[in-house]
Every structure is written in structure tokens, then in C-alpha cells.
Queue: 4 jobs
Job 1
Amino acid sequence: MKDVVTVVGEPTGGNRSLELTAKLTHFKEYAVSHPQLLQVDKVLMQAIQEPAGFAHVLIYGPSGVGKTTMIRQISRRLSEILPAVSSDRSSYRHASPDPVPLLLLETRPPDGGAFNRADYYRTALKLLGEPFYERRLLVDIDTEQTIEKKGHRRSKATQFNDSPELRHALEAAMAKRGVRAVILDEAQHLMKVGSGASGGKLLDQLDWIKSMTNVTGVLHILIGTYELLNFRNLSGQASRRGLDLHFPRYLFQHEQDRQDFQGVLLALLKQVPLATDLPALMQHWFYFYERSIGCIGVLKDWLIRAVAAAIRDGSDTLTQGRLEEHALSLSQCERMALDAIEGEQKLGYSESRRDHLWRLLQSGMTSTTVPTSVVSTTVAVEDVSPPAKKPRKKRSAPSTTESVTVSAETVET
């Protein structure tokens, strides 16, 4: 009988597959802290730690820009640095519930015409580990019938299927679990207000968010596509109580954006758990930009698809041909680009808006022109060249998060 000898250090076929699968999982979890992400992350963390009068934060950008990665990083950091302070525990059966500094909810589209607030309360309560709440009811039998008749009238509560009991239970649960911030992903679904949608109905939704913030002291962060732009500036108070953050893609027409995009691409390709020809792939960086339209989330998903297919086929190399097989089609990219550009154009700043603002501020005065100091200051700031990039420092240890600070054009060919 012959002995079967296995060479240590050289994995067999089955072990090799398991090893590559584990590396693929690691690649999925890897995140690049690129400039656009870092900027939004910094401002958002400041708002969470000190809202300074803000009741809600709107974060909008194109689909696939990397909002999910931002949410994951914010969630991890909040759990590490924010002590959750629980209060009013006397009415609960558990004396020391685990703190939940960040409550993350995916806002689901309604089954009917309008957003279902009661369903939102139920989902949030379950995530907080509070599937039950206490109900106390005292009914005067002589007035019960009158109350039932009045209840048939349509109101905001019936329009959005609101439930005061569930809302009070959620507000109490937030205090109990020490929630500091609520993130509503896909928040554009909050804008589903039924037939005849108007600014007034959208304002009702923002007022609802603001009211919950006032009661609980918990900042609500709404993350979604450019559809959230319709939530901006619905009223003077809503403008004052809301912080707007744009999470943009990298724009090809800006040289700095092109360099940053190449840096992100290089960082991702270095983490691919397969053999790659980095110089050759980086020569086609514009193709990666074309099929991701400058969105890092789209780029990362694309690489994951290609790597997973290569592992499934038993290949240990990621080639340009494999990447082309799993790229989004031109028609898909064109549709995505049109949506992104439409949102970007809505955000485009024009001097006519500043002129209009100063006409309002100078109402009743003879002169309604923009002051010279304001114009000159703006021009001076815009003319300042961006600071030079610092060279990348050599890392001492591997990490699942990498900060990109250098262009990929430094790759030797």
C-alpha cells in the first residue's frame, strides 16, 4: 500500500478553493478611505457628535457612489467612541440593556401609495430588541361611540398609517438603548406621500422627523439618491434645521478627480486575491472609469463579480478579458450617467441665485447689487490652487481600510 504524501505549504485543490473563498470574503470587506468618502465622513461625524441645532442630515449622491461603505464605517466608529447613556430604565424589565449608539434602518417602499410610519416603528423596535410594549387603556363607555365616529375622519395620521402608541414605544426604546443617531438608508422612499404629492405633504414628513428628534434628541440621517433634493428648503425652518451633504462621484473633467480615481483603482487591484498585471490593467484606467462612471461602489462591485467568477472557474489570475465580461453594459452606464448628471445639475451653483438672495436681503434699499467685498472674496477663494499632494507613507501593517493619497500613475510599467 502506497503512502499518500502531502507537501506542507502547497494547498491541495479543495484547500486552495477554501483559501481563495476566504480571501474573496476579505476583499469584499476591504474599504478604501478615498477623498470623497473622507470628506463626507468627517462632516457627518461632527454633526452626530454635536448637531448644533440640526434635526436631520440629508446625504445624497448617485447610486453606487459608496454610501454603504460610509454607513459601515460610521457604524463601527460610533460603537467605538460614543458612550451610550441610557436613562429612564425603571419601567423596563431588563435593568442593563446593551447600548445601541447607531440605529440603521433601510427605508422600505410602501405597499400602498404613502409611506407607512407604523411599519417603520415596528421595524425599528425589533432592531432595538423591543418587540413588545406596554399598553394601558382607560375607556369611558359613554364616550366610546363618539370617539369611534370621530376616528373616521381622514388626517395626517391616517394618510401615513401613523400609530401614536408605536411611536411612543419607539421613542422610549431609543432612550433606553442610548441611541445617538438613526440612519435611514434609501430614504427617498420617505417621499412616497400618495397621489397628488406636493411640497406640503413632503414637509409633513420632514416635520415628523424633526418632531422625533426634538422628543428623543436623536439625530436622523437620511441617505439616498438625488431624489432627496426635493426635501431641501421646503420651508425656512426646515432649511435651518437640516444639514445637506453631497456625496459626489469622481468627475473625469477634473484633473484631481482623475488622479484620485486612479489611486482608488490601484488600491483595490492590489487587494485582489488573484494574480494581476497591475501596470497593464492601470493602462486601461479610463475603461474602469467608463464602466463605473466614477462611482467607487460600482467599481468595487464589478471587481467582486469578476474575482468571484475567476475563482469559480478555477482560475488564479484576473485578466482584462475577465473584467470586460463582467462590466456593466454601455446602455446601463449611460442611464446611470444621465441620472447622475441630472442630480449634479440641480446642485449647480449660479450667480443669479446669489443676486436674488441679496435683493431679498436689501429689500427696501435703493441699491440691490451684490456687495463688492462678497464678490471679490468669492473670486479669490475660487482662484486659489489646491494644495499639493503629500507622498504616500509606507504602511507598517496590512489593514482592511486604506487611505488613498497618491495617483496610480506612479505604477511602473
Job 2
Amino acid sequence: MPDRLVKPLFYARDDPTLKTSQNWPLLQRLGPPTSLRLRARIDNVTNLAQTPLSDRLRSLVDTVQHNERTLRRFQNVELRLIGAQDFTSFLDTLFSHLPREFSLASVVLWLDDRAPMLLELLEPGALHALDQANLRTSREGGLAAQGLCDAGRPWLGKLNELDEMARRAFFGDVDTPASAILLPLAASDTASGYLCLCSDDPARFAEGMATDILERFASIVTASLDNVAHRERLKQLGMTDSLTGLANRRYFDERLREEIMRAVRYGVPVACLFIDIDNFKLINDTYGHQTGDRALAAVAACVRQQVRLGDTVARYGGEEFTALLQGDRADALTVAERVRQAVEKLDLQDDHGERIALTVSVGVAARTITGTPAEAAVHGHAMIEEADRAMYRAKRNGRNRIEALVQAASNSAAR
């Protein structure tokens, strides 16, 4: 006689996998155990008939309680996904919390980096910063998942039954789990991604298993992904200059605070450049504001190309840009000269195809900062003011040049 006659729909932790049964009508005649009306099966009709009614009812109650606990765990995961404030938190819930909660071998997420709302989340620099091996965007993986999920339905079964090309496209070179379920993340009949739940138990996800709870979970993942993308987009708009695509002053001020704290913690120097386009008002007055906007965008792109990936470049205001660099005064002077030369070589043309000469004046400041957080913040802002004063000195001394104030009692210029 089996010790549990009715098996739950989705098994958490170490339970075996449920497969739907043709005996559901018999259980319906017994009456649903709770208002949840969870699907279940009867393992052995003959044994059920011979089992005392109290034992059968106790088994049903135990299973219903088990299912309710499982649903609560799902709900907790769903609430974490819905409440995720950024993409990192969203991925952490899927890749760390979900496998722990349901004893999964791994979770793999494939996203379409061509989807409009995902373009910025999945651009190469952002993916590199996330450093999530289980986040996939390859075209081959998407095609493999699309082929498995026929007509937008989940696929589940043993992964060793797939052809090698499909396995490698989705799982790469890592060891392939024994079984998995692949769930489309679709909105308006368009799949923006696929969620794969993997198990080392070959019977955990098998053909014929009921998938309604997991399909509902996939819809929550889809909605949460859309929420995160919107939040990240709004955050980006709030900290990005719309004309140049660079960070704005608000973002720069936040990054300055972070970089100053990093410099204090590790005892490393930090530097700042203030960059101002020479005679910009004359360009606007002569060629018009549209040409002036093109000049701003061209210089912004030029500056961005001359600094390292981890450095911060922002439009500080008007025709003024600033760059926060990881390095000492010599490093900053080298970067400043690269910027000056690159801008001087820009080929910006007016409406008649005539070249417009562009140059910049650059002020440089660098410091190794120590002290308490409050003291460090004061030194950081002093460095910014120092670079600003150096930039104005470059203007006074003829433009298209670099100036750096000596950090000492005197404020003499140095090149």
C-alpha cells in the first residue's frame, strides 16, 4: 500500500516528479480536498479502494498541505522578481534564489538582445559587467529554444535525447543536466526569451508532466523582466544627456563619490579632466544651433573613445565635459593630450560641406586622497574645482591646450 496516494503537481526539494494520470476523474468523484482544486493522480486504484477512508483522507490532506507550501515558495520567488529594482537583483533571484528554493541543478536564461526594451540591458559592455555565465544571448541558443518550444508551448524531457547541436547552443560546454523544462517568456505572442530549469534527476522533468504552475511562473518572469527593463531605462534617462548619450552631471557627481571612496580604500590616485569646446558660441552663431548640436555630439564621442572602459565621461553643462580617470597626474596628462589631438582632427562639416575647425581646452587635476569619508569628499570636490580652474587658465593662455595646476601652496601652471 503506498504511503502517499495523491502526488502533488510540482515537486520541490527532493520529491520525485509527478506525471499526470488518466485517473483524475476518479479523484474528482471523491471531491476536491481544498478550494485550490490542484490536479493530482491516484497511484493505484485497487489499493485506493482497499485503503481505509481515514488513511485516504489523511493522505489527501498531507498532499494538499505540501502543495500549498510549494505554492507559497513560488509566491515568495515571484514577489522577489516583481520587486527587483534592477537587472542584477532580477538575475540573482533566478540564478541563485530559485535553484536553492527548489533544488534545481541550474537555471539558464536566454534573452533576445534585439528586443527593443532589452537593447541597453544586453549591450556587450553591460553583459561583461554582469558576468553571468547562465545568461545567454546567442542566436544559436534562441533558434534551438524556438525549435523545441513548438507553437509557444513548454518543452520538457531528458537533455541527452536532444541532438548535440541544440544542447551546445543552449548550454555551451558545461555538463548537461539530466532533465529540464524550457519555458517561453512571451508577451503578445512574441517570445523575448526562454527560461530553462534544470535538474540532475532524469525523472524530474518528463514528458506528460503538468506544467500549468510553471507556465504561470514564466508569465511572472516575463512581466518582471519588462518592469526591470523599464526601471533601468528610466534610470538611464535620468542620468544620461539625451543629446550626446554621455552621463549627465547628476551621474558624474554620484560616480565621483564612489571613485573617491575607492581611491581612499585602496590608496590609489584619481584624476579629473575638464574639457571645454573653444569658441563654441561663435560656432552656434555662425552655423546655427543644429550644427552646434552636431559639434557637441562629435566631441562627446571623441572624448569617450580616448578614455578607458572603466573611466567616466559626462557632459557637465553647455559645451563643457568632464572625465573621471583612474590614474595619477601623468596618466591624466597623457589622456588629455590624446583628447586634444583627436578633437583637433575631427572632420565636422557645415551645410555646404566646408570643414569646421574644432579644438578644446583641457584642465587636469589628480590626487591621492586619504582621510575619513567626509574629508575625502571635501578633497574630491577640491580636485574638481582645481581641474575647472586649470581649464579656464588654458582658455586664457590661448586655447587648444592643456593646463594642470600644481597641487601646492602656489597655483602655478604646469604642463
Job 3
Amino acid sequence: MSGKILIIDPNAHRRGALCQAIQNSLYSCISANDIETADYSGVKGVLLSTDAPDTRNTIRAQLHDAKCPILILYSPNAVYDRANYFRAGAADVVEATCDLREILSRLRSAMRRATAAREVALRSGTTRALGFAEAGSTFAAKQMIHVLQVTGRTPPAVTLPNFGVQSVVFDDLGALGERQALKCLIIDVDRDAPRRVIPLLLDLRTHPATRYASLILRADPDILEHIRDALDCGADDIVGTDISNPELTHRIQIHQDHLRTNAILRESSIIGLNAAITDPLTGLYNRRYAQSHINLLLEDARSNGGSVTALMVDIDHFKSINDAHGHFVGDQVICSVAHTLKSAIRASDLVARFWGEEFVVILPNISPKDANTLAQRLRRKVSEINTDTTPIAITISIGISRFDTAELFESGLEHYD
């Protein structure tokens, strides 16, 4: 990840060390002593020290419009409680004296969250521009937070008024995950468990029930430095056992918002993939999908001694239908034929629209006689179609081809053209 990072910190020594670490991580860096002299143009992330004057109000007033994440470097003499900075809009709050690697890890995470949020906003804008309605809001039950005890000790209690909290021991995690996908897991790490943290995170990130969950490590303050690398190995956050409930609530909410953002992006990607392989008029697969599908069928046929047959279907005199009745009726005819073809084939068969009024029906492992019988049945069913608006006699012509290789399939299509 690259981009320009702005550091606002009156402490020159700390500012220089941060700037050097950022540049070593392939970011560009600019810095300022105070808020008034800072240049925000083109900034992708901000490190803002609480030693800077009026830091809390600055987040709301000056940097909020920049649309970039703001990470607060919290000094021991800070005036405000850490939770107040989250309320003001901070993406994260970290001790100014902590390891530089942790600061960079948290900064990278905040920038990834911001990038994902911008992408969701962009895709939502495109969806609205296309005329699709936004999803309606629904009632949401209180979200359950699970507290995982890695060892046998009893961890400090977690009281979060905005969430339901349930403790779970490690041995019961698998059974719980089989019943539901977990949304947020607070993992208590004691002094005997730091070496187990990274393998545990890797396991959780590969398990279907916890793959997308927010994973927050909680440990005594004096052992946090031993698990900081977990931020780059699958953990969303690490916190001390002395964290206040308001701050923990804000941190959980930030990660749950990111969880929803990623879910929207995954769903959007699936929708985009479906759009890339689907004919928008009929809902059938398109030529791109059919060509890939027949390649797989041919590989399977060669391995198992099977066969692949294709029915090349063409609506007769379709141009005359369009000219006489208009494109609306023509589209209705295409959709009616598509529905008829799809409803008359086996589950293992596939029908796709190639272009215009032309379709292909792909039939794995069917005898020539059965293929011919199916073709005759399809012609009969199509001839029985009645359109809603205008009585039109609809007929189709079908060519039957048996293929051994994808090259023959392509050459057959060219001959069919």
C-alpha cells in the first residue's frame, strides 16, 4: 500500500522517527508542528498527536472533510479520555510511546478500512445511478460478542451495554461455529499463551465460522508488547485488560462496521461476476460462460470416456418478427423461447443465449438418438408458445453437433454463424 501520510506532532524527535519509519514502509511522509501549518492535500492518512493543541475539536472541524483516517497518538498527559477521541471521529487511538511497528500496523488497517468504505460508497452511487433502489432497513437484534478463553483462567468480565456477551472455552469453539458464523471474538491471552496466538489466529482465519469475524486480542498491559505482531497476522485489534468499556465498545463498533463493509463488497463482487456470465434479457448464461463450461465438459469426457453434444437453436424469421411487431415483442419472443428451452432440459444440461435470436443447449453424455428426440420436443414446445400481446407463430431450427475438442466446438460455432 502506498500514499502520503501526514504527521502532526510538536515533538520533533518523535515526528522524525515516525517519518523515517513511514518512508521505510514505502509511504511518502509530510509533517507539521501544529494543526494550523499542516498541509492536508492528497493525504491518505493522518497521525495526530494529542500534544497538538485542541486535538479533539480538530478531528471534527478541520480533518473530517479530508475523508481520510485519523489515528490519534495518545500522550500520557492527554486531557481527554481515549473513548472521547473515538466519539470525535478517530479511526484508532494508540499510545504515542508504543512500538513504531504497531503504529504502522494500525495505520495500515485504518487505511484499508477507509479504502473499503470509499469503494462501497462508489458502488452504491453507481447502483443508484442505474436506478436500483437501496435495500430497506430492517430490525437488528442485539449483536452477540463472544469472549474466548484460550487457557483455563477466568478472564476479567466484559460488560458492553450495546452488545450481548457470551463466554466460550476453546474446546467448545468448534461446536459453536457449526451452529453460527461468529461476528466478533474477543480472545483473552494470558502469560502462558503468547506463543499460541499466531497459530490460533491462522486457524481462526481459515475456519468458515470465524473467517470474517472481528478478532480482538485482550491481554494484561505488561504482555501486550509480546503479541503486537498479531496485528499483521490476522488480528483486527489488540487491547489491554484495563481498557474502559466505552473505548472497547467504540473499537468493536469500528470493526463491525468494517465487517459489514467487506460483506457488501463480497456481495457486490458476486453480483458483478453473475452479470459477467449472464444474459441480461433472458437470465440465461451467456456465450462466455457456455464456452468455459463446454471446455470443462470436454476435459471430463476425455477422462471418463463421455461425450458432449450441442444443439444450435435459431428462431426462424426473427428479423421479420421485429420488423412487423417491434423490438418489444421481439424481446418477448426471445424470453419465451429461452424459458421454454430451459424448462425442457435435464439438470445436467445447460442452455445459453449466444447472441440475438441464437441459443445453444449443451448436453453431456447423451446418445445421438436421445439428442434428436430432445431437439424434436423442443421444436414442438416452442411452436406451442403464445405471446401475451400479439399472436405470432414461433418456430425454431436446430442443428445437432457432437464434439470431441473445444476447437471443434469453436469451428462448429463459426460454421453455424
Job 4
Amino acid sequence: MYRTVQTAAAGGRFGFNMRNAGFDHIIITGKSKVPTILKITNDEIEFIEANDYWGTGIESTTNELWNKYGRKYSIISIGEAGENKVYFAVRHLFWLLGLDKKRFGNKDWNPLSEIISRDDTVVIKPNLVFHRNLSGDSIFSVITHGSVVRALIDYVYKAVGDGGKIIIADAPQHNADFDEILKITGLGETVEYLKENFSLPLEIYDLRREMVIYRDGVIVKRTRLTGDPKGYVEVDLKEDSELSELSEDYRKFYGTDYNREKTLKYHNRERHAYVISRTILESDVIINVPKLKTHVKAGVTISLKNMLGIVGDKNCLVHYRIGSPREGGDEYPDQGVLKNTILKINRWYTDKFLSKGKGVNLYSWLIKLTSGHSKLGNETVQGIVIHSGNWSGNDTIWRTILDINKIVLYADSK
């Protein structure tokens, strides 16, 4: 508790031995960045790295230290309750899965060794979709918490060893600030620290090829990104795509950007192609670390949808089909003459002008006129206008999600 003094008592020989070593009190200030042993031998004090004992429990830790340093030492261990609770949760998950069950509870326990081999390349795929929560709530109800990734890094490293490679990778929303995400989650600092101090074979990649900036609801700047250092593979599922049964009406497909022609180059009567990170396809193991949350198009975001973040070009992801179901689309339900007309005007203006980089100032003015929302007519005096496939009738996004997971399971870099 902050700015309070607490007391505690413990039995055993620790207090007696501490006094014999010449100490009445021990005051520890600051915080170690790694698990640490404080070893006191008379007037000699040592700080020793304790990663091997992390998560092994009080009894196991005590016995291991006695075996190493001798029973002349009294030992106080913080135990699992005093450790990082996220580490405990990740460890408990591996235990529930029965991974490396025979060695559980000692320092040789290596749970991921059952699915990861020495010297493997492992991709940790968190959900780092955006740098803020648009609802105003905590950002960590939207993205994977950095502490979960941090715990996984240790277990993956124990499995791959120095000869392996660990890559944290995601392709967030096309207008997300990746540097800000790394700052919020602490992942940028974590990777830098682990590489500098422990020489871990660790990298972090933003898999996007392009980032955009919106202002007043329109794209005002595009920035080409480095993306995957290994490049990308265009994987064409053809008739195996879940979108293939919609191919006859492919011109209704909408991706991410104004210019639907980009999306239609990937998805049409002849092909259904996706631009996939080569790093992902060449990796030996992918660890999917999703964020459980609701989603306006898919209903929920769990493991399957999280894999959309392996795509380098957002425009190859079909999100919905333009128009209402009566028109062969699933962009929005039938909302009456006024709202449907507003949405049709919006679609016409987007296809006719915004897709060609024209009419941006007028569109921005119209958005300001409609309370600053990101779509013309988002909100009217009659209430909210449903748009962009953001409703339960979206019958397209699940197809895209399944396509990407088929690629994860069955495609390779060739």
C-alpha cells in the first residue's frame, strides 16, 4: 500500500542467521528488471540472476538453492503469489495443457519444448490493432497486454535456445501508430532490453506495407513502410476461398481503402489472393495471442480473426459487400428511404471522387456538418445510420477470416 508501513512476522532460522551475519534490518530499494536472488554471506552481499527459479514454487526453489549453496543458508522465497501474476497465469495455462508434465515444478520444466524444437523460428502474434480505444475505455480492453507477451518470450527462448529466433509481429489497423503501440505495451523497451542485456534472438515487426493518416474522416497522408523484411507472398486460394461462391458479384467487394479497384484485383471471378507475410509462412511455429473482445463486423475477435494481422496489404481483405441485402450486399440493413439514400450518396461520392484522390475538402466539410463522424450521414436527426458492414447481417467477413486461417494452416512460402 502506498505510503504506509506494514509489519509481518515469520518463524524459522532466517532472523537468527541474519543477526549472526551482522544485520538488524535489510532495506531493499528500487526494482530489479529480472528475477533476482539476494545472497548474504556475513558481510558479503551478492545479487544473482534467478530466472531459472522463476515459477518453480517455494519448496522447489528452496531445495534447488540448498543443493547449490548448502544448507548453512536460511532461505526466504517469495513463491508464486509474490511473482508477476501474468507469469503465474501463463505457467498455469501450460500446466492445464499438460505440457512437459513430468518435469513440472523444477527448473528443467520446458513446456513449449513439446511444440517447439531447438533452433526454431517462432512468431508470437499478439493483437496490436490500434494505439487507442475509440470508446475512451482502457486501451488494454482492445489490444494484447505486453506482460503476456513478455512471459511468452521467456518460455519460447527456453525452448529455442540461442540458435533460434523469436519474432513478435502484427499488421495493425492501417491508420494505427505502431511506435505508440510499442510504447503503450512496453514491447519496444522490452525487446531492446532483452537484446542488449541478454543477447536474445528477438525482433519485432510491423507487417504493414503502408500507413495512412485520417483527418476529418478522409485520408490525407500515405506513408510507405518497410514492412516484413523478408517480403511477402501472394497466396491465391482460387475456388478454395470461402469468397468463391460470391465471385459472380465480385464488384460489390469492399476492402479497406476508398479505391475498391485495388481489392478487386485480388478478388474476382478468376482469383482470391492475399498478400501474406513471408516471415509468417517461413516460421516453424506461430503462437497466436489474441484479445477477447466484441467486434462490429465479426461479432467477436478471438483467435481466428487475430490472424488477419499477418496480411501486408489491407486491401486484399474483403470486409463486406456494398449495398443492402435486397441489393445483394451486406454493408447495411434496409433502414428506410432517407438513410438508404444518404448511404448511396456516400458510396457514389467515395467511388467517383475519393477513390481518385478528389473532392477531399468537400467531403471533410460534409463530415463536419454531420457531427464529425467518419462517414457521410453517420448520424442524423432520426438516429444512428448503420454502415460499413458493422452489423449482424455481415455475411462476408467470416469468409475472409476463414481464408486467412486456411493459409496459416496449409500454405507455405512457395
